[in-house]
Amino acid sequence: MTKVFIDGSAGTTGLRIRERLEARKDIELILLPDALRKQPEARRDAIHAADIAFLCLPDDAAREAVALAGGCDTAIIDTSTAHRVAPGWVYGMAELPGQRQRIATSKRVANPGCHASGFIALVAPLVHAGVLDRDMKLSCFSLTGYSGGGKKMIADYENDGRDPLLDAPRQYGLNQAHKHLPEMAAVCGLASAPVFSPIVADFFSGMEVSVPLFGEWVDGGIQRVHEVFAAAYPGPVIRFVEQADESGFLSAGKLSGRDDMEVTVTGSDERMLLTARFDNLGKGASGAAIQNMNILMGISETEGLVLG
Fold first, then answer.
1. Can you tell me the distance from the alpha carbon of 192 to that of 136, in angstroms, rounded to the nearest whole number?
2. Quick one: pLDDT at residue 38?
3. DSSP state for residue 246 in the 8-state scheme
4. Which domain holds residue 251?
5. Is residue 306 part of a domain?
């Protein structure tokens, strides 16, 4: 029986992880009463008692939790931004070349960001295969459900008498300093972060990340992109889909409630659009964290995941 502690189990990511793990027979959850869940001593004792600890916390609190874990052998999976490009941490995206083995032998795993998961799934294999040059200056558009903004944003969208501006999609990250940009560039091996346009809309969960490309940027054209994606993503968690649209449309909510991801490319050799669809709380957060936990446990990485 693997002992697991979720530090920050009251947030959206932590709650989804807890829901998934409560149904499993191979997991013993270490739970703190509400009165103790923010006390450093109680958190430290719970982390030290666990085999695996999830950190579902703001960045500063996650760094504090790592300090509390000092001196123990507990494996840490951090879902915050704090350690995604930090030395000594393994980036928790198993589908990247060699990454599954690195995760399996690590005690410090940084869970990917939601927007970053889609961008990296689309761009990293193409850079690795030499289809895209690492000096390429890219752009990225990402549609997300409002659950990605946490409890406050969920309340803003679901409260009666809400601001009517929430009825339409809203672009954010306007200062081009979004917290996912460092990992998007570093993990893909890009010299520059993309121009990034995230957009939140009036649906609970789901994500659609798109990267537009001119054909002249792509060595081998759209057929080569097909080949690279098909080889990189046979499933079951990330899979390449040749025909993914719904009568000419792509819904950002198609994989809501699930833990998998669909990757596709549309267009022609002149202009093409790379697109990844998944749940921002699934493969974009909690589902990826559980997948990483399974790898650390040495069991099937899809155990307990909701897949299509």
1. 8
2. 86
3. B
4. 114-281
5. no
